[in-house]
Design brief:
Elements lengths: L4 E11 L2 E10 L10 E3 L3 E3 L2 E14 L2 E11 L2 H6 L2 E9 L2 E2 L3 E5 L4 E9 L5 E11 L5 H4 L6 H13 L8 E5 L2 E5 L1 H7 L1 H11 L5 E3 L5 H13 L6 H14 L3 H13 L6 H10 L3 H16 L10 H12 L3 H6 L7 H9 L4
Parallel strand pairs: 12-14
Antiparallel strand pairs: 1-2, 2-11, 3-5, 4-5, 5-6, 6-10, 7-8, 7-9, 7-11, 12-13
């Protein structure tokens, strides 16, 4: 039996950090599908992002009712996956009836999927589906709580919040600059393999205290707030690098990704070099590349008074000279003061 399939796709950018793509699909002779036979929709992207989604539809019999079984597939782009701050939402209609939205599906890996069943009383199946890709805001505690959407998870977070800094039930203490932080070994051991090693080590000496260096009491409090109840500080942009340092030290990967995303989202020509140096120190190659693209254009501004070198020479200079040698080192002082030195350097490249 032939199954006529018609499909239409629309792509939209709603606002910064929120993209939508919609599928309108109609299948004739749907009830004639064989057992296990599925019809796949087109693979659909988003404006300004390479993530891909599609749906597979097959017939499912449950008792006296016939259902359409939908499997929504989502392949995340590297940018979305590594950011650790994106969700996708599925909404729409099946034969004119609203489906129950599949919301708050957090993107943490390359491939993910979700299922949905809808009663199909007609041999013709008409589907209108909208997939929304949304980036979570990072400056609001209220928005960040969307990371844990179920009531049970919120209850756990609320209970953990009551525990932090409560000496009555704590079994360990961190010390930073003479400030004491009562904590709980079981919570921190579950969050970090490094904390687990620390607790095992100090238990051999019957100690219940540990001094944490190279940070401040304020930063450690933010760090513990994140581990205990998933809270980010309102001034995250200002403290993200200090938090990233602790996240790397104690292997809290989710916090690492969030702090790195802060640098991505706030990259400008004014701070590009500062970000490049920080990314280089922390071996964040993708962030280095993004910052370097901006730096190149800034460096090229001082070439306005000189003839443009051959493209091969310019490419070689940017890759092998500026990035690794003299001009990049000088750029650390002040790029606008490099005009004379840059002209001299260029004269060696232009016959």
């Amino acid at each position: 039996m032939d199954h006529e399939v018609r499909q239409f796709v629309t792509l939209k950018k709603i606002r910064q950090g929120e993209l939508k793509s919609s599928l309108h699909m109609k299948i004739e002779n749907f009830h004639e599908l064989l057992n296990g036979e599925a019809i796949d929709s087109k693979k659909i992207t988003f404006l300004e992002d390479d993530s891909v989604w599609w749906t597979s539809i097959q017939l499912a019999d449950r008792g006296t009712d016939t259902f359409a079984e939908f499997t929504f597939h989502f392949n995340a782009s590297d940018t979305v996956r590594k950011a650790g701050m994106y969700f996708y939402f599925v909404s729409g209609t099946v034969n004119g009836k609203q489906i129950e939205p599949l919301v708050n599906i957090r993107i943490t890996k390359k491939e993910s999927s979700a299922k949905y069943f809808a009663i199909s009383s007609s041999n013709s199946l008409e589907v209108q589906i909208t997939m929304t890709l949304k980036r979570l805001g990072i400056t609001s505690e209220k928005c960040f709580m969307n990371f844990d959407s179920t009531v049970q998870k919120k209850t756990i977070i609320s209970n953990n919040k009551k525990l932090l800094n409560e000496e009555k039930y704590s079994d360990f203490t961190f010390i930073v600059e003479n400030t004491r932080f009562p904590v709980h070994r079981n919570i921190l051991s579950a969050a970090s393999p490094i904390f687990n090693e620390i607790f095992a080590m100090v238990s051999l000496t019957n100690s219940s205290e540990f001094i944490i260096g190279s940070t401040t009491p304020t930063i450690l409090q933010h760090f513990l707030n994140f581990i205990y109840w998933a809270e980010l500080p309102e001034n995250l942009i200002e403290v993200s690098r200090q938090l990233h340092q602790l996240a790397c030290r104690y292997k809290i990967e989710e916090l690492e990704n969030i702090c790195t995303s802060v640098e991505f989202n706030n990259l400008t020509k004014e701070n590009a070099f500062n970000v490049f140096v920080w990314a280089e120190q922390n071996h964040l190659e993708k962030l280095m590349d993004h910052a370097w693209n901006i730096i190149q254009f800034e460096i090229l501004e001082v070439f306005d008074s000189k003839p443009v070198p051959p493209s091969e020479s310019l490419s070689l200079m940017l890759k092998n000279k500026i990035k690794k040698e003299k001009l990049l080192q000088s750029y650390r002082m002040k790029i606008r003061e490099l005009n004379t030195e840059t002209n001299t350097f260029l004269n060696t490249l232009i016959p």
